[in-house]
Amino acid sequence: MFRFRSLSLLGSAILFSAVAGAVAAPPPEKKPAFAEYVHDQTNKILDGLESTKDSVAAKSAAADLFDQVALYAPDNQLAAFRDASFCRRLTRQVDQLPADADPIGTLAYLRKNPDLASTLVFLIPQDSKRVGDIYAVLAKLRQKHADQLNRFASLTAALCVVRSQPLVDRVNENKVEADDPVAVWEYYAANERRMFFGLKFVPAELLGYVVDTTASVGDLRWALNKYQGDKVIGQHFFDIKYDYDNARTGATKKVTTAGYTLPNILQFGGVCADQAYFATTIGKAIGVPTAYTVGEAAEVGHAWVGFLASNGRSGAWDFNVGRYEAYQGVRGTVRDPFSRETIPDNYVSLLGQLIGTKPVDRQNCAALTDVATRFRRAVGGQEPFAAAAPEDCAPGTFRATPRSADVATTLNLIELALRQCSGNLATWLEIRDMAVANQLTLKDKQRWADILMRLGAKQYPDFTLEIITPMVKTVSDVKEQDALWRALLPVFKSRFDLSAAIMINEAKMWADANEPVRAGNCYMNVVQSYANSGPFIVDALKGAENLLVSTNHPDRVVQLYAVTWQQIKPPTRFAQMFIRSSSWYRVGEMYADKLKAAGQDMQADQVLAKLKAQGSQAVQ
Predict the structure, then answer these.
(1) Across-strand partners of 305?
(2) What distances in angstroms separate CA 126 from CA 130, 357, 371, one per listed residue?
């Protein structure tokens, strides 16, 4: 018995020893999957930046990680793209902050407020020269509302970028300067529930067209109390009665004398610039993105309203309700609230796609666009890749071979980005830039033109043609290019201005190809088809005139203008106030100049007399 017990103890000791040996020799450490590895590396880089304060080293490490992800991340590893792009953007931004801006303290604050961090970091343009000014606005907001900014991430980010430089509107003789950004933030945050679309779930890209208001907070409150919940902002353009005394005699406007406020504009009226300012500001006051839009015709400009109209659960920009009928054929430009650059109104229209999108999808799109831009530059011979395959993550979770730095890879990344969010302007402009750089084959252009047509031809025709045009223009074979122009015409047949633009581009193509007859036919198609449809007829006339002169037929120029002017109808009484910018008046002046140049002074005087007689009725 004793012996048996001893043997049992011995066996137990041996067994315990074997188990202990197994515990003492742990299995090889499991390597993380690629996406987890990238996330860990991102945190490691940012932790290192906080501890060492070496922004140059952090920026370099983030750039290396970004390149590694660009080359080796599988298409479905969206979190890896997003983390790497965020890290690269953030380290670059921190590196641009001056020492007195407390860059490391700012970094620490952002890392504790992740919604604000991701929204702001991805909103700031990659090539921005105002990073320090943007973060200076954030510092002002943090002084009073540091614990609330993350709740209003889109509002805060939009305000920081928009107010990174002085915001002033000059509405003819009146100057309007925005209130302090902290007061503006407080107005919107306090009234979030009264805003038409809300604030918390509206993309910062759209809120930029809300917080770029120059009205005082007092005026904003007045407008909110009077117009809260209004669905059709554009119609308030016509609430402002036209100041005919100013238009007729140049007398100082009544609203200028009274003081330039929203209540005074409503009481005393103004001209189109004041009408547009009033309506756009009402929209901004109630949380509707709006754009003060300007069209140029001759030496007389006109302003109107663009606003984001509600369409059930989605939204679409409307640039037609808030303008006079006489300007329906005029393309407009707006001030980009973030860059302050002048951009086509069709760029703004595309932003309607962002309503209802998720922040993570928008950020995935931005990150993939960053990667596509990186490849486009590498294709162009800039910044070649040098990143090696990752060694510290599990095999099979990243690409076995790196992506090739070629056009096909770049296009695939752009398409992947647009699948995340089709309303990102920067992504579409990558395609345009590649077309302009002549990096696309004819097959590429045909495929992307088809994608554009399917995604936006009906809802965003202006923008669609804007992106397609350089694709077609860079087709070297004239017959192939002509076929593409002709294929586009039926698509845009309901838009006279776009159809005319296609014909004018086709005419320029034939003129460059030394085919003046075909070019002239295109110009005359515009003249004959759209004489009463918009100001683009002036461009067609000038093109036709240049062809006549270059082909030794200057004697036909007067007849060209005579026939055209007879086709154009004088403006209706509704449009009399804009008569000098109408096609009828402009072509009439040009016709009179041609008559005088041909020595036909009497006929020229008769034309000018008709213009003067019509113009004298303009504001009566």
Answers:
(1) 292, 322
(2) 11, 22, 12
Q: E-assigned strands of 568-612?
A: none
- Distance from the first to the final alpha carbon of the chain: 128
Indicate the residue type of 282. Answer: I
Query: What Cα–Cα distance (Å) separates residue 589 from each residue in 49, 562, 563, 593, 610?
Result: 66, 11, 14, 6, 10
Residue 617 CA to residue 17 CA, distance in Å, equals 110
Tokens 């965003």 label which residue? 460
Which residue reads 């910018």 in tokens? 581
d(CA 342, CA 333): 6
Copy the structure tokens of residue 377. 């530059």
Is 33 within 8 Å of 75 (Cβ atoms)? no
The confidence score (pLDDT) of residue 248 equals: 66
Domain coordinates in residue numbering, the chain: 34-151, 169-187+208-354, 358-389+402-473, 553-620
pLDDT at residue 339 above 50?
yes
Cα–Cα distance, 31 to 28 (Å, whole number): 9
Which residue, among 419, 432, 330, has the nearest Cα to 376 in the 3D structure? 432
Strand 174-177 with 168-171, pairing: antiparallel
Task: State both tokens at 323.
Answer: 């303008």
Q: What is the DSSP letter of 212?
A: -
pTM over 0.85: yes
CA 199 from chain centre, in angstroms, equals: 20
pLDDT the model gives residue 461: 87
Residue 101: enclosing H or E segment and its boundaries? none
Pairwise CA distance, residues 402 & 397, whole Å? 13
Question: Is-contact 452 415, C-beta < 8 A?
Answer: no
Q: What is the CATH number of domain 169-187+208-354?
A: 3.10.620
Which of 523, 502, 462, 162 has its CA nearest to residue 319? 462
Crossing angle of helices 131-145/153-162, nearest 10°? 130
| Distances in whole angstroms, Cα of residue 546 to Cα of each of 478, 507, 508 | 21, 12, 11
R_g over Cα of the chain:
31
How many Å apart are CA 323 and CA 279, to the nearest integer? 11
Residues, the chain: 620
Q: How far is CA 549 from CA 72, 515, 541, 560, in A?
A: 59, 14, 12, 12
Decide if 369 contacts 430 (C-beta within 8 A).
yes
| Single-letter residue type at 285 | A
CA-nearest of 238, 226, 299, 292 to 270 is 238
Residue bearing tokens 């754009």? 291
pLDDT digits 0-9 by tens, 140-167: 999 999 999 999 999 999 999 999 999 9
